[in-house]
Amino acid sequence: MAGPYTPEEFEGVPTDASGDLPGVPDAFQRLWTPHRMVYIQQGQQPEEHACPFCRAPEMDDEQSMIVARGEHAYALLNLYPYNSGHLLVCPYRHIATYDQATPEEVDDIGRITQIAMRVVREVSRCDGFNIGMNQGRIAGAGISEHLHQHIVPRWALDANFFPIIAKTKAIPRLLGDVRQEIADAWPA
Ligand SMILES: [Zn+2]
């Protein structure tokens, strides 16, 4: 169900202090994310104490957009999704690059990534995924200080003209609904 959305539908979507929330900005503007501007205005990499991926696990799942928690890593919805269901898998520890991860963290990131693929495929019937990590700002990491693996579901028909003409991408569903659906489908 595509927009346009009424102001009531933005209820619960943060409009300030978005640096406290998880997410990785990219080149795309979202039609429905007014809080994005706060993020852009901050313009700096977070310190550990302000790092959104360190703070997210301290919040409850609805607040932080977390869909599942493992022992050494967790998965949450990207606040700046490329597509609906765009997840990030992060270690709890504030490390910047994959080679700094312990074997336990590598195992957990891999295990959670596999489960996330099954769950997202099941609930969204996507046709494929882009999975990967941007290591360092130069490589496109929005928050380069805290490792995160992207899991982006893809559909055969998901490309539209917006990204080409305006660096804008329409996301058809609100984050809270998507988070709930994925969390509900996550195996216990
Ligand atoms: Zn961190």
Automatic annotation (TrEMBL):
<keyword id="KW-0378">Hydrolase</keyword>
<dbReference type="Pfam" id="PF01230">
    <property type="entry name" value="HIT"/>
</dbReference>
<feature type="short sequence motif" description="Histidine triad motif">
    <location>
        <begin position="146"/>
        <end position="150"/>
    </location>
</feature>
<feature type="binding site">
    <location>
        <position position="150"/>
    </location>
    <ligand>
        <name>substrate</name>
    </ligand>
</feature>
<feature type="active site" description="Tele-AMP-histidine intermediate">
    <location>
        <position position="148"/>
    </location>
</feature>
<protein>
    <submittedName>
        <fullName>Hydrolase</fullName>
    </submittedName>
</protein>
<dbReference type="InterPro" id="IPR011146">
    <property type="entry name" value="HIT-like"/>
</dbReference>
<feature type="domain" description="HIT">
    <location>
        <begin position="52"/>
        <end position="161"/>
    </location>
</feature>
<keyword id="KW-0547">Nucleotide-binding</keyword>
<dbReference type="InterPro" id="IPR036265">
    <property type="entry name" value="HIT-like_sf"/>
</dbReference>
<feature type="region of interest" description="Disordered">
    <location>
        <begin position="1"/>
        <end position="25"/>
    </location>
</feature>
<dbReference type="GO" id="GO:0000166">
    <property type="term" value="F:nucleotide binding"/>
</dbReference>
<dbReference type="InterPro" id="IPR052908">
    <property type="entry name" value="AP-4-A_phosphorylase"/>
</dbReference>
<dbReference type="InterPro" id="IPR039383">
    <property type="entry name" value="FHIT"/>
</dbReference>
<feature type="binding site">
    <location>
        <position position="78"/>
    </location>
    <ligand>
        <name>substrate</name>
    </ligand>
</feature>
<dbReference type="GO" id="GO:0016787">
    <property type="term" value="F:hydrolase activity"/>
</dbReference>
